[in-house]
Amino acid sequence: MSTDLTIRRVLKASRATIWRCWTEPDLLKPWFIPKPHSIEKVEMDVRPGGRFFSLMRIDGKEYPNDGSFLEVVRQERLVFTDLLVADWQPVAEPGLGFTAVLTFADHPEGCDYRLGAAPDARRRAEARKNGLHRGLGHRGRATRGLCAQAGGRVVTVTEARVEDRSLVIDRVLPAPRDAVWAAWTDPRRLPKWWGPRGFTCETREIDLREGGQWRFDMVGPDGTRYPNRHRFRRIAPKHAIHYTLDDDGTGAHHFEAEVRFADAEGGTRVTLKMIFPTAEERDAVEAFGAVAYGHTTFDCLTEAAAPGTLSVTRILNASQKRVWRCWTNAEEMAHWFFPDGIDIKSADFLPRTGQPWRTVMRSRADGREMVVRGQFVSVDPEESLVFTHGWEDDTGIVATETTVTITLHEEAGRTRLTLAQAGLATAESLAGHREGWSQTLDNLAAYLVGEAKVAPAPFARRQRSEQ
Description:
Helices cover 22% and strands 43% of the residues. The protein has 11 helices and 26 strands. The strands form 5 sheets. An 8-stranded mixed sheet has the order 19-25-24-23-22-21-20-26, sandwiched between helices. Helix 5 crosses helix 8.
């Protein structure tokens, strides 16, 4: 449809925020016409054929405007008119007699917002006289400071900086970039690893290309289903994927995501940046545990991209220095360095490059002893620890040796610990070690906040004196 009046603005706000300001009555009222005029009442049924009614107060007089929506494509396109009212019924005496077409698109600085209005030919002069062009232009600049009543409190929709609306999850995965990219972009493999540990994906539709989408339910450990949709905006092979995530039209959950892939020492750096409509939504998602869940998702990606490698991450409520001490002091290790149902009998664990180590564990159920030992490959104090790992058989021989890498990163007063174990020969071995390490790191997390599951059993301190 050709339009007589056209407005284009690049607004420093997300597309989702601009859409909300157009489709939520409480957000529309403060800016819909130029000051000092006002909107006294708004009724909106945002669907094709739904009503769009407003009561304007201009120079002390009230002017009702009744119309309807003709086309609604969420966060992309909105068409409305005052030539028809709800359910496509014609209007005998329309107000300005116009049809408006709005489009919303992503832009590097926010939202590329375009509005075209086509007044009825007989009313073009009247439309300009009554300020239609000026009013529509005003709307493109008035998205700051809007308020809406939500959940019993006033929420201010402001144009926060992108940094303030973003969450970033950044990791170096122990796999080459080709392997990481293949795991993310193979439609058969992506649903098998996507999501936090313990969640599964049930795909309804997947078209993994620019313009395509992935519609699926994420199913939680308790059976709760979470509808999801990824709409792929841009795919730069082996470099970046940009997609929009929402809950497949069932609610307001929505954000933009960009994943970047780059070569790095030890593997591939994967950076996931999630940009939310508002800083408040970003904060709510972070409080829900999005960062921790994101890292467990990256654990699953690691295992998909590097066969025979397990990955376990925990966000610990302690400083990096404190966590390092728990890994390098035998007396502290006795409180947590064991899976469920196991005690430490003795520990000879002094991290020095080239130094051997040995720990004896004892089952609480039957008293059976298990010996695990290895050698430290590299030690970077308070940063990383790499050691070989193997279980002795009854003759004292280690048949299979693997490599364990511990990395620590301090983030906002807490510590992200990631454990990767490479060289596991079978799926059963990987699953068993993952369970054991998960329980062990849960014990560490509890110990660090004074909630150790059990008191440590007496053990022989065979650790050499620390320097």
